[in-house]
Amino acid sequence: MKREKLSPFFFISLLVVIIILCNCQNISSSRSQEIQNLRVFTKLYGYVKYFHPSDEASRIDWDKFAIYGAEKVKNAKNSQALKSILQELFLPIAPTIQIYPSNEKPEKPMQQQPKDTTGLKVVAWQHQGVGLGGGPAYASIRLNRENKMPTISLSRFGAVNQGIDAAEYRGKEIRLIAHVKTNVRGAGNQGQLWLRVDRENMKRGFFDNMADRPIKSNEWKEYKITGRVNDDALNIVFGCFLMGEGQVWIDDFCLFVKNENDEWESIEISNPGFEEGDVDTAPKKWFARSPGYIAKIKKENPFKGEKCLLIEKAVRYFSGKLFDKHPEVGEMINKKLDANLSCQIPLVLYSEENHTLGKNDKFPFEDILSKLDAMDDIELTANNESVRLGNVVITWNVFQHFYPYFDVVNVDWDKELTDTLKESLTNNSEKDFFYTINRLVAKLQDGHGGVYHKMQSEQAGFSFKVDWIENKAVIIVSEDASNFKKGDIILSVDGIKAEQVLLDAEEYISGSSQWKRYKSLLRFGYGKQGTKAKLKIKRGDKAFKIEVERNFKGQIAEFEKPNIQKLDNNIFYVNLSKATMKEINENINDLAQAKGVVFDLRGYPNGNHEVICHLLQENDTSKAWMRVSQIIYPDQENIVGFQKMGWGLKARQPRIKGKAVFLTDGRAISYAESFMSFIEFYKLGEIVGQPTAGANGNVNPFNLPGGFSVAWTGMKVLKHDGSQHHTIGIQPTVPMQRTIKGVIEGRDEFLEKALEIIIKFQTD
Description:
This protein has 764 residues and is an alpha+beta fold. The protein contains 15 helices and 39 strands. The mean pLDDT is 92.
């Protein structure tokens, strides 16, 4: 057989294919090395930040260090190069740690224990939960150091403001100008001016609080906000606030309106330069009452005149211990960072003359400090790859060492680190990263968990509310009655089946299945405000299509319920989401004598949990269902104890003796579940409806560079009998499902069932 001669084109094509395959393999290998480098840095970052007690480590900006370090280590070619970079990064702030090959023993520490320890103090970390500034339930301290402690208030900002009547300025353009400087450090700590227009019927008017351009400069600078006064405006409110921790100084407020000649004309405001009033007192003619923050007049370095205003977070200092146990002198951890590198980290350091012992002249602390100080806060957005990677480092470590529910959620957290780093490297924008970091937090199955960013304000939905009934997305109430009716079934949105729309949204929602479904229904079909969606609707036997604009924000109430109402047969209804404890106390004698009381907790209590006292036969004895971990070792190994808490409710007269029935469902979360836990444990009434959210315990939020805020549950909450509450929630004694027929007829089927139970109880 004659062999055909291969053409030159064939060989060229083959060569091109081989080159492409080799390049792909090189890219894949390079990306794998990048991820491995970042994994090693992430783990070492957490060990040093939270468990190594050097004074140098306490002085750096750990947010900037995460970003800077991620950028430095990413492109290390091999483990030897990575080790060198890690030493350059960490030895200036932790000179006594060792980074060594995993197949070898660690070298001798650069700083030996002193032979004579007379007069030296021991410094070590203690964590009660973890102190992230989220309130007094959580704290992190170093022994024998003066530690900043959270104040009692859970407020995240301190503000001053004043307002003027808007009638004269309706339809006109206004401008707010003020001079501001700050002393802030770390993500989420910043100054902001704000200008708001209040409209009739509590409608939202113009609003700008500089969330997209926070003030971080430590020099006096002019800032301005310009907006239009709505035609139905009632008031114009303006001011300045400090978000998070630090200090902000404000001076020389000015407000202007644009007149008919297109010129800016001054509007008179009260005490614009804070010249009225005494030093170190609250500013006159300004509203300044933010719990946990102090606003006071100062004379030092005003921008104009003799005085200015200072807003700062109230701080208390603590130099004791949180609990008895702590690492002993000489205790170290040896941790494998990957197959090639390990670390040895002292958990205890000696201190003399207010400085922990240990120094490395080869890696001066001032060098790393100056590099971090040179990083521009304004440029730290998640459009920058290093910011995205740094945020993964920060977030993963908080949960790795302190999330209290890993024993009951099914997640491979180590694998999630790899997956999230990999995805962050492919993100092209802060919007991409917003979904990436939310997906990570969603893996925790924490109903309090979520990531928030100002870009969410650009989202809107439809002017109707949807519920999942009979395995269908059903409209239960609408503000656009001409197009959408109660009982309409949504078949699809932009060609995507309604159930898939919900499932796609739930991928980014943290929590139990019931909480995910509630949240996805609440934001059904959300997208960029002003965009249009094509809906396919079924009404009765007919299906039709309609195009609708996403322009609705807020919530629509399906049923307008009174706070407290007497129904037939001496039965009372109490709306726990609205009724205050004062209102309940005013009606307590009637409630005590009623044949039955329906308590509606399909939502969040209005500070009225003391009504439980009127249902208890004896004092509450359950005192350990809330537990904050006491941690001194990384990776939540060997947790040394718990701070245990309860409510300690006392039985109170008059006692409600009639049949009590509680209505609840998956929207009841946190405080609502604490409330319902008493009903469940002490069997204080029937529970009609669906399981609650299954997420309880104080939230412990933290901020990330780029304007992200992360919420999560920082303590473990159990049922009163010690069993699991997380993701399970409070289970109904009388499970209920809604019907489409009931929706069309406008019936509250849960309330009907509650009344049926009470009436049956009366006749039995």
